[in-house]
Specification:
Elements: E1 6-10, H1 14-20, H2 25-46, E2 50-57, H3 65-88, E3 92-96, H4 104-117, E4 124-131, H5 133-149, H6 160-164, E5 177-180, E6 199-202, H7 212-224, E7 228-229, E8 232-233
Parallel strand pairs: 1-2, 1-5, 2-4, 3-4, 5-6
Antiparallel strand pairs: 7-8
The chain binds 3-methylbut-3-enyl trihydrogen diphosphate (2 copies) and magnesium ion.
One 3-methylbut-3-enyl trihydrogen diphosphate (IPE) binds at residues 10-12, 54-57, 60, 184, 186, 188.
Length: 235
């Protein structure tokens, strides 16, 4: 079995899962956060090197203030727990997205998480929080334009590789496999540039119920595909 080096996940369906159990949406979010810890360990034990998960999109601010507020509270506690689990599991954590819209204390916890885990050599874990791919590209273009104006980059030297270096994922290889849970089959503004040649896997299983076996199913399906680039089989 070929294990994909980098798996990206759109963890969806927390709310619907909770509703199906007669519980409030927040219950789904907190069970979803717990499941993420489990799946991180499973993924690493399976041999996955990079895992990138979508926690909060730039569009998720449109949800009710109560839901946004409870998600932010959950991220606070998740970040604190993650500082400990990252040390225990030798996991390096990165944040992608624009943290500047988050509360200062949450930004500070995220910085601590990134900083305390930066030397870890186990799972390379990216959390996308206040992430939107279009926003990421716009921020990259802004920084690149500034470098051009400062004379650090010549426009004629801009190519795909140079541009990728301005994205939040600058030192992470592109995902090999994208998984979206809970039945929706869209990207919802996730990693538009990075997913250009990624294999997609959609499952009806809602995120809080997603298990190691479901991850295996996705990897098996990935293995049954023949990856091609420009119509040419992968070497
Ligand atoms: C995914 O679950 C978690 C976040 C987007 C924060 P949802 O909250 O989108 O759950 P559904 O899709 O409404 O069931
Ligand atoms: C995408 O899920 C964002 C995250 C998983 C964080 P949503 O549930 O917000 O996406 P849409 O709005 O249904 O596309
Ligand atoms: Mg959803």
């Amino acid at each position: 079995m070929v294990i994909p080096q980098h798996v990206a996940i759109i963890l969806d369906g927390n709310g619907r899962w909770a509703k199906s159990k007669g519980m409030p949406r927040n219950y789904g979010h907190s069970r979803g956060a717990k499941n993420l810890e489990v799946i991180c360990e499973d993924a690493y034990n399976m041999g996955i090197k990079y895992l990138t998960v979508y926690l909060f999109s730039t569009e998720n601010w449109k949800r009710s203030p109560e839901e946004v507020d409870s998600l932010m509270k959950l991220f606070r506690s998740y970040t604190k727990t993650c500082i400990k689990t990252a040390q225990k599991n030798n996991m390096r954590v990165r944040v992608i997205g624009d943290p500047t819209a988050l509360a200062e204390d949450l930004q500070e916890s995220l910085r601590r998480l990134v900083d305390t885990s930066k030397e870890n050599t186990g799972l390379q874990f990216q959390i996308a929080i206040n992430y939107g791919s279009r926003d990421e590209i716009v921020r990259a273009v802004r920084r690149l334009s500034r470098d051009c104006m400062d004379g650090k980059v010549r426009p004629e030297d801009i190519d795909e590789k140079l541009f990728s270096g301005y994205l939040d994922t600058w030192d992470v290889p592109d995902p090999d496999l994208l998984i979206r849970t809970s039945g929706e089959e869209r990207l919802s503004n996730y990693l538009l540039w990075q997913l250009a040649y990624t294999e997609f896997y959609f499952t009806d299983v809602p995120w809080p119920a997603f298990t190691k076996d479901d991850l295996w199913k996705a990897i098996e399906k990935y293995n049954s595909r023949e990856r091609r680039y420009g119509g040419v089989k992968e070497e």
